[in-house]
Amino acid sequence: MTTTTEQPTHIAPSVASRDEGGRVRTYEVRTFGCQMNVHDSERMAGALEAAGYQPFVPSDPSGALVAADPDFIRPAHDYADVVVINTCAVRENADNKLYGNLGYLASVKRKHPGMQIAVGGCLAQKDQGVILDRAPWVDVVFGTHNMGSLPQLLERSRHNDEAQVEILESLETFPSTLPAKRDSTFSGWVSISVGCNNTCTFCIVPALRGKEKDRRPGAVLAEIEALVADGAVEVTLLGQNVNTYGVEFGDRHAFGKLLRAAGTIDGLERIRFTSPHPAAFTDDVIAAMAETPSVMPQLHMPLQSGSDRILKEMKRSYRSAKFLGILDRVRAAMPHAAISTDIIVGFPGETEADFEETLRVVREARFAMAFTFQYSPRPGTPAAGMADQVPKAVVQERFERLVSLQNEICFQENMALVGHAAEVLVASSEGRKDANTHRLSGRAADMRLVHFSWPAGEQLPRPGDMVTVTVSDAAPFHLLADHPENLSWPTRRTRAGDAWDRAQAAACGTPVVSPPSVSPTGGVAVSLGMPTRSA
Fold first, then answer.
1. CA distance linking residue 40 with residue 472, whole number of Å
2. Quick one: where's region Disordered (predicted)?
């Protein structure tokens, strides 16, 4: 039974939220890493706003790029008073990205009186005081277990005129108890657990997030109900290993039960979750997915390697046959399920024969999408000290072969959907703007990205509305739906769209077409602007 508190966390107003002249200070949170980090950033933003800070609004004309791309370079005056960087520690380039950003922010801070820089998240939990050694201009360093301390630490740093480092070794309060500044009116993240009990030899996360801590089902369902009451029609359940949910309170079927219970919440149309672990993925979860209409026909199932020998070295307690068997059973229960995965190339000791096994499994699995990574040794993990580290040139060549194969499969699988109908949840930030194409963007039930046409001059569907389209063409990473007669597609107005209207009215009154929300480097930022037209 967990002893981690789930009582709401009160964030007191902070005197540091105003400058010497009484002006409210502004903040921005930059997020690197996984969906868990994105959700954590919403909690950090919520804590800062509860303490009295207000979100930073960049000046035009570069505001759209600033919001979409945290690396975008802009003048020193066009920065928040408080910049929070929520870090990732999964790959080596996370270090490079953090210190690259901090290096530039040092020059900004010299020209921006009173500016504070805070670093949190997994890399902060790992490096702790090392961050101040490498970047002494940082004001606050905090970890994964004490996000709610951020306003206090900023205040203490400002009062004492010295950097504050606070890292807790274990979780005492669930982040879900903190107030949240949600990025979306129509979709929300809901954490069901934090931490991980697995010991994968390549992964640093358990050392930084700690052992698995499960929230009580009633608390999870209450948060979902609150989101739906605010207008959300979609939730994504989050955990390092969602399908071991219940380990703390002794119910190995708790996750399937949670899916079914969430499916009874009136107004909740789409339920997703990420990420499960193949070793613990049971048939009761497959049944719950298939028998709960609001659970979407989509599954992210990390493979990591197709070689049984490498899986053993990784301490992944399944083998390729079991993995493929799970996919077969999911597709038998949900024939139209889109399955995505994670794959690591170049794990220590990987031979050409091992890599060929990965290619074999990829061919058999026919993933709708694969997130492919070149192995990156992380200090503190067993794999970092293993012999037979694969040469970079070999890893790169294998990586390119894998990407080429998977892109071909993605294209074939997407082309097979041409002529089929798809209900698209309209988004505000899924594609680039191109006035010549008159396309908007959103996600189909199976999580595929869809760019769909919309006649110029006609009223646009709102973010959160549902549009039913017919797929007309496809590419490896998206579907296209151009109306043959250049008409608008059938649209179902939703409570989520109404919530977007309310948010617009509260923010600025009359809604306007938003600038693009996808960065030049591929990062996506969520805004509350009108849905973006896309190429």
1. 38
2. 1-22, 510-535
The answer regarding whether domain 24-164 maps to CATH 3.40.50.12160 reads: yes
| Mean confidence (pLDDT) of the chain | 87
Q: How many helices (H) and strands (E) does the chain have?
A: 15, 21
Cβ count within 10 A of residue 450: 28
Topology at the third CATH level for domain 179-414 = pyruvate-formate lyase- activating enzyme (3.80.30)
- Are the C-beta atoms of 121 and 142 separated by less than 8 Å? no
Is 470's pLDDT higher than 60? yes
The DSSP bridge partners found for residue 339 are 299
| Residue 437 vs residues 18, 65, 427, 448: alpha-carbon distances, Å | 45, 21, 17, 20
49-81: string of b/e by CB count within 10 Å (b at 16+)?
A: bbbbbeebebeeeeebbbbbbbebeeeeebbbb
Q: Among residues 369, 292, 306, 293, which one has the least CA distance to residue 338? A: 369
C-beta of residue 64 within 8 angstroms of C-beta of residue 515:
yes
DSSP 8-class letter at 389: P
pLDDT tens for residues 123-133?
A: 888 888 889 99
Question: Residue holding tokens 């879900």?
Answer: 176
* Torsion angles phi and psi, residue 478, rounded to 5: -160, 165
CA distance 479 to 445: 13
Looking at residue 438, its pLDDT comes to 75
Q: Measured between alpha carbons, how far is 238 from 215 in angstroms, rounded to an integer?
A: 11
Q: Look up the CATH superfamily of 418-505.
A: Nucleic acid-binding proteins (2.40.50.140)
Tell me the C-alpha distance between 347 and 390, whole Å: 7
**Pair of tokens at residue 212:** 């698995």
| Radius of gyration in angstroms for the set of CA atoms belonging to the chain, rounded to a whole number | 23
H-state helical runs in 430-472? none
Q: Are strands 421-426 and 369-374 parallel, antiparallel or unpaired?
A: unpaired
Give per-residue pLDDT as tens, 68-108: 455 556 666 688 999 999 988 776 677 788 888 899 999 99
Reported as a single tens digit per residue, the pLDDT across 375-432 is 988 888 999 999 999 999 999 999 999 999 999 999 999 999 999 999 999 998 665 5
Q: What is the crossing angle of helices 320-333 and 352-365, to 10°?
A: 10
Is the peptide bond preceding residue 511 cis, with omega within 30 degrees of 0?
no
Phi and psi (nearest 5°) for 243? -85, 5
* Rounded Cα distance, 120 and 147, in Å: 8
Percent of the chain with pLDDT over 90: 66
Q: Which of 419, 441, 439 is nearest to 428 (CA)?
A: 441
Instruction: Tell me the three state secondary structure of residue 1.
Output: coil
pTM above 0.85, yes or no: no
Check: CB of residue 390 under 8 Å from CB of residue 363.
Answer: no
Domain range list for the chain: 24-164, 179-414, 418-505
Tracing tokens 């480092």 back to the chain, one arrives at: 165
38 with 526: CB under 8 angstroms? no
